[in-house]
Amino acid sequence: MDLLLKNAVIVTVNPQREIFYHGAMAVNRGRIAAVGPEDVVLKAYPTADTVMDLDGKVIFPGFINTHNHLFQTLLKGLGDDMVLSDWLSTMTFPAAQYLEPEDTYYAAMLGCMEGISSGMTTQLDYMYPHPREGLDDGILRAFKELKIRGIFGRGCMNTGEQFGVCPAIMQDMKAIEADLVRLFDTYHNTENGRIQIWAAPAALWSNDEENLRMLWDVVNSYGSGLTVHVSETPFDRASTAKLHGAEGTDCLEKLGILGPNVLMVHCVHLNHGDILRAARYDLKVSHNPVSNMYLSSGIAPIPEMLAAGVTVGLGVDGAASNNGQDMIELMKTTALLQKVGTLDPTSITAEKVLEMATIDGARAIGLEGEIGSLEAGKKADFVIFNPYRNPKAVPMHNPVSTLVYSSTMENIESVAVDGEFVLLDGAFTMIDDEQGILRDAQRTAEDLCVRGGITNRLEGHTWRNPAP
Ligand SMILES: [Zn+2]
Questions:
Q1: Which end of the chain is flanked by fewer CB atoms within 10 Å, N or C?
Q2: 44-84, pLDDT tens digit by residue?
Q3: Rounded Cα gap, residues 215 and 228, in angstroms
Q4: What is this structure's pTM?
Q5: Fold exhibited by the domain 3-61+373-427
């Protein structure tokens, strides 16, 4: 055995949803060999190369972030308190046009570091601007260096100028197809399977039918998946209807993009028919409540989706509309937003939110056989949670409640992917100079703003306080 964790509370999220209050978990060659009551596990596996006594601490499955735009971590705080069209035109598009490979690398390092600090072990990044070559590789380099589980969604837009898409970040279909195939052939299923490639058309209204069908054919030929923003706003639905003659999941049905390997992002404005269709075809949903609140997109009808049997995972979304990557804040926000949206405190529970951040997230990205719960045979992606790192999480009566409602990133003590610690006792094991990376990310973000002519920062910032 490589690793034996004992004397722990273990929240498995297995099919029986077992919690072992005096539990142990044995890990070998990156997979869970056994998990259960401590006496049972220790009888089979009395020792290991590394033994950790986790007195008073909790093991959770690693958290899964099903939606992100890592390049946006350099843009935190530049688009606050704006309507979406200004958010796009004054900040996101100008920055996207000037991205260099060094920017995407530092953006991804920064975003992944924050994610890992909050217990994230897997994420799906959705990289839609491609003003020059090499930007994808910067993000994939960060995934590899940090040894996290990373799905890289190769984004694109080949139309949509009529709806405000910036022509400088549009590409033609041939260029998109060539780069997508290159990424599949270079990276898909590498790093012990931790890296996967998906397609990620930016929106249904910024990609024409021919391009969307091409993407669908390519991902299916590699046994992979497709993720797309769907029904984020009424504008999204109206533009999709104008371009394709149908909206929401009706549009996906019309295009033939249907199946369990389709992950729809946001889905704030899905109607009842859309939800029934999503259930029928097993289309998955990524729910991004912090971003939906920040951009005033609305409240996604999550209880209705869950009642219909739709799988819903959680996403932080890009840091330009969050403005962080914090999975713990995301879980609490998920619960509170539904409670206030439905005026019903029973509309969602802490347990359901944890399922969304773990096993349902795994299902949303097609990895439920490998990750998302702590079960023998699955990959050893897990979090060690220590309530005693701050007063907020004490007393801990119910570990799931404490995690969702009473914790912070500080309580995430250690994080492992494939049985290897990427964060140990609060320190990043794959990084020699954490401060150096943070300073480099700050410098890179400042340089990008200068190149993009983004002026509402530092000395250019003006105090905004609307008149009463
Ligand atoms: Zn997004």
A1: C
A2: 999 999 999 999 999 999 999 999 999 999 999 998 988 87
A3: 11
A4: 0.97
A5: Urease, subunit C; domain 1 (2.30.40)
